[in-house]
Amino acid sequence: MNGAVPVLPVPAPPVPAPPVPARSGSDAVLVLTDVTRTHGEVRALRGVSLRIDRGELVAVVGPSGSGKSTMLNVMGTLDRPTSGRVEVAGRDVGAMTDDALSALRAEHIGFVFQHFHLQAGASAAENVADGLLYTGTHRRERMRRAVTALERVGLGHRTDHLPNQLSGGERQRVAIARAIVGEPTVLLADEPTGALDTASGTAVLGVLRELNAAGTTVVVITHDRELAAVLPRQVRMRDGAVEDDTGLRDAGLRDAGPRDAGPRDAPAGPVELAPAIGADR
């Protein structure tokens, strides 16, 4: 050796994995493939790929600004993606007209919002029946189905009550009944427990679980990690991208389309889950 320091080759930087393509199938009710959404210079969604199958109960969880609300709007066809592909119940919504999207929402998507959005002067049954206004269903049939939906959420004894005669939890259950009265393919719930106390929130979560057990696909959008931790699948978002998806980890590789095993498919590390609702702190 002449004292020269050997020069070691510098390893090439890892090549990022390509976006995971999502393939629709008979069980897929929502499929997003490399979806982006920009608002001016803000990139609210950054290449999101996600598949939700029939009968799933999923939490999309993340802090404020993570993109979860934009994701709900795109999944619910309230917003169109800037790029990428969105499929609802096997239909590519990209080329659909606004009228066609409205019809698709009426048939396949139910919405539950944090602040209920009930008509103050209408009874619980009338509020629920409004969920069928754009389906061409006769009023008598709308009211009959509204009562049935209220019975499903445990409010069969409150059909004639006005919103101000109901508790917060009961008002949210009326909103859930309105969302399911048309028997949608998927229920999108945006912070459904956010305006409720712990007991009422737990009761509403129990209703969502019961609906899912009866076959309704439910997607809950939330910032609450405790709520998300008690649901079977959690999709964690940060900075407009999917940071982690327990559905991929729990199934090994979730069948979301062809993919190559690699760093993208492996979790970045152990994820600490928050304790379940009601656990000692």
pLDDT < 50 runs, ≥5 residues: 10-25, 253-281
Strand order of the largest sheet: 6-7-8-3-9-10
How many E-type strands? 10
Overall pLDDT level: 83
**What helical percentage do the residues reach?**
25-40%
**Order of H and E elements:** EEEHEEHEHHHEHEHEEH
Which geometry do the CA atoms define? Answer: globular
Q: What is the CA–CA distance across the termini?
A: 64 Å
Biggest sheet layout: 6 strands, mixed
Assign the structural class, choosing from mainly alpha, mainly beta, alpha/beta, alpha+beta, or little secondary structure: alpha/beta
Q: Could you characterize what this model shows?
A:
With 281 residues, this protein is of the alpha/beta class. It has 8 helices and 10 strands. Helix 4 packs across helix 5 and helix 5 (168-180) runs parallel beside helix 6 (198-213).
Q: SSE layout and pairings?
A:
Layout: E1 28-39, E2 42-53, E3 57-61, H1 68-75, E4 83-88, E5 91-92, H2 98-108, E6 109-112, H3 124-129, H4 139-152, H5 168-180, E7 186-190, H6 198-213, E8 217-222, H7 225-229, E9 233-238, E10 241-245, H8 246-250
Parallel strand pairs: 3-8, 3-9, 6-7, 7-8
Antiparallel strand pairs: 1-2, 1-4, 4-5, 9-10
